[in-house]
Amino acid sequence: MGIAAVESVRLIHVRAANMTAEGCPVKSAEEKSMPTATVALIPDTNRFRVVFGHVVHGQRETKGTEVQVDATFELVYSYPPDTQPVPTPEELQAFADTNSLMNCWPYWRELVQSMVARMNLPPITVPLLRFVPPPAVKKTEEASTPGG
């Protein structure tokens, strides 16, 4: 999927809350170590969309405050119309889990920092996204042993 080009990135949901503010109506959302990304082909086109969602919680020790920011972005990609075969759902999901996360992460970082600053709290700086390759899987050799 190295031939995919991002067409648009748009914010489709955002919620930021000072969770310790009196009367805060927001329920705590589960924070995960990595964002979620789901993908779907856009029918009858050479395009697909990725929906990227994430939640972050942060403690502001100086003010004894907990903040939560959760958001969802939609990324739309296209690939050349003459691409054959059409990418499989597994290939698209692998693309979403890697490339789309890398493409969307700067938008996520800026959103968190901006939303927390708008609450008049010290900003949360979301770290850069770094992919750590999984450990290499050792292949077992099926060698016959003499006398075995």
Keywords:
alpha+beta; 148 residues; elongated; single chain; four-stranded antiparallel β-sheet
What's the story with the biggest beta sheet?
4 strands, antiparallel
* Shape field: elongated
Mean pLDDT over the full residue set: 88
End-to-end C-alpha gap = 46 Å
Number-wise, the strands total: 4
Q: Helix count, per DSSP? A: 1
Pick out the low-confidence regions.
none
Order of helices and strands: EEEEH
Rg for CA atoms: 21 Å
**What's the helical proportion of residues?**
10-25%
Proportion in β-strands:
25-35%
User: Biggest sheet, strands in spatial order?
Assistant: 1-4-3-2
Class based on secondary structure composition and strand pairing = alpha+beta
Explained architecture:
It is a single chain. This protein has 148 residues and is an alpha+beta fold. Helix content is 20%, strand content 33%. It has one helix and four strands, in the order E-E-E-E-H. It has a four-stranded antiparallel sheet with strand order 1-4-3-2. It is elongated and about 55 Å long. It starts with a strand and ends in a 30-residue tail after the last helix.
